[in-house]
Amino acid sequence: MALIDTHCHLYLPEFNPDLEAVIERALDCGVDRMVVVGIDAKTSQQAIRLAEQYQGIYAAIGIHPNSPVIDINDEMNQIKAMLSHPKVVAVGEIGLDYYREYVAVPEQKARLLRQLDLAAQADLPVIIHNREAIEDLYPILSNWVKEKKNPSQPDSKFAGVLHSFSEDVQWAQRMIDMGFLVGVSGVVTFPKARNIKEVVMTIPKTYLLIETDAPYLSPQNHRGKRNEPAFLAYTAQEIAKMQGCSLEVLADVTTHNAKILFGID
Fold it and tell me: In whole angstroms, what is the distance from residue 242 CA to residue 107 CA?
């Protein structure tokens, strides 16, 4: 059984003391591939370095909607220069965040649009961050999907993933219809996380990805502690139970989804 952690931040200081051990524990738990996701130019470069160092690590590069940036043009140019790296598999983490509006909404939207353009130019999927912004996010993504769709390309290729999905079933279905996958984090193990539980019990597993968002969003049995890729197994077990399938089947399907989305072996 193999699992892919489709969203983690292993470059953060929380992992400085024991990164090697963290990666070893992940491998021991069957998590043999990880997508390390940047939130600005510096961390995107750090994600690439980790991908160069470890065979099972891949990088996503991008500027988070709330990341403090002094010179956005310089940051964008740096991101653009990284797109051709062979282990860069997505543009992200990009999107909108109205929960913590550290960056003004017009600037968040401008960042998102510019990075969606970069993803289309590089033919890469996107990893979308959404907090309380789905009403604004949906039309932006819808327009992007329509504009980037190439009639010569097969329709089976996913456009991206809604990272740590938190909306209801109706929004999940709308995003799926548009070509996006639904990313499920350890939040699904929280007793009161009704939305994502309903989503997981309703939509087919063929549209799900699993992630940790490590060091954040630890599953219930490790809540309040640092999250790490090894804990992905707890999220997978919870989803399998809700889907009424074995852990092995859930792992096979979500791993297949990740391979298709990110174009990895």
Answer: 39
DSSP 214: B
Write out the two tokens for 214.
Answer: 């490590």
- Measured between alpha carbons, how far is residue 74 from residues 44, 83, 113, 127, 217 in Å? 14, 15, 16, 21, 31
CATH of 3-262, one of 3.20.20.140, 1.10.540.10, 2.160.20.10, 3.40.50.150: 3.20.20.140
- CA pair distance 114, 131, nearest whole angstrom: 19
Kindly report the average pLDDT of the chain as a whole number: 95
pLDDT the model gives residue 156: 52
Q: Please give the Cα distance from 86 to 106 (Å, whole number).
A: 32
Q: In whole angstroms, give the CA distance from residue 128 to residue 47.
A: 17
Give this prediction's pTM.
0.96
